Amino acid sequence: MRISALLLILMLFPLAAVAEWDFSKHSIPLDEIKGGGPPRDGIPALTNPKYVPAAKADFMREEEQVLGVNLGGVARAYPTRILSWHELVNDRFGELPVLVSW
Known about the structure:
The chain is an alpha+beta fold and 102 residues long. The protein has one domain (2-101). Helix content is 25%, strand content 25%.
């Protein structure tokens, strides 16, 4: 129930923010505003990621930051260095589908 409510809030908030933008007021000519970054769907999500025990994660740096998730006694760490390239991880904790976003 709490997850559903949170997802609903997160989905509605960006729509409300965009609805309030007033594009008629600007100091930069609109034809000079260029898009940037990767194209739509240009950052692939990780799906069904593979895990290694912490003791065998020799690719990790000692000071490296991770985003941690602990659900139902299952703990996972997602290195922010990897998340910066993918931004989303489609994962499962048992039967529970989980989307990790960075």
